[in-house]
Give the backbone structure.
Amino acid sequence: MNKTERNIAFVDGQNLYLGTTKHPDEPWQVDLARFRVYLEKKYGVTKAYYYFGYMSDEHRDVYDEVQEAGFVVRFRKHVPAMKSLKKGNVDTEIIFEGMYRLYKQDDFEKVVLVSGDGDYYRMVKFLLDEKRLEKVLFPNEYASSLYKQYVQTNFCANLSQKDVRKKIRKGTLR
């Protein structure tokens, strides 16, 4: 990695959580502080945004942990009366933020996306075409089939691979 890179990362928090902690074969937990260091060292990420579906008082400790690990915490906006009826879908928030930063010509080189969700496919393709994609990091091997054409390239990686997991793993879940 070029040490002068100033990349940004967008983490789909629900996708990361469900893809690791709720992994169907081998659940595991990401150590967020180690993960943040990994993003910086491996991919030159100087700023990392971690997206949650909505804010809930019962999860304040999780938000604090994410922030203390070095991520900028973002929430999807909801009408308060509808929060319990909506899922925490942050896809449009991440896509808009990425495109907005490109449009405004913010001071960064490339984007690292942490999600295996196919809803990001068009953004990923656009970033590739513009040579602004550093990497798509899938939480596990079950990424959307839309990314199949990129899996064998240098633009995708799987966080659950043993060598990566060893670097960012928190502990063993039962």
The domain at 7-172 is CATH 3.40.50.1010 (Rossmann fold). The chain has seven helices and eight strands.
